[in-house]
Amino acid sequence: MIDLIINNLYNVRNNIEQTEVLVTSIKEKERVFKFSSVETKDHLYNIYNDRLDFSIYRGDHFEGLAEVVEEMKNSDLENIRLSYIDGIKKSCSIFSSEDYSIILGIIFYDN
């Protein structure tokens, strides 16, 4: 089930409205998110901007990383929720408003 959710998120990643609908539908399901926490925008931006710089330097770029960093930079949100879904083939990190009403972006990782 988790891999199906990640695949669905991957398939709609370029359509923010469909992504928001999908995240809204899964946020209440038990055991979908391996973890979820709220941090300040500045804190998460600094961490993931550094990861972007490092990944560009190393040449190993995760899909969605640059878009998430840009959205965080331009966001008016004070706090951002980071939620992680761990699948068998892929995993992903979802960056959103605290209540998931605004999705900033998703980073996808191959396992």
UniProtKB/TrEMBL annotation:
The organism's taxonomic lineage, starting at the top: Bacteria, Pseudomonadati, Bacteroidota, Flavobacteriia, Flavobacteriales
Domain of life: Bacteria
Protein name (Swiss-Prot/TrEMBL): Uncharacterized protein
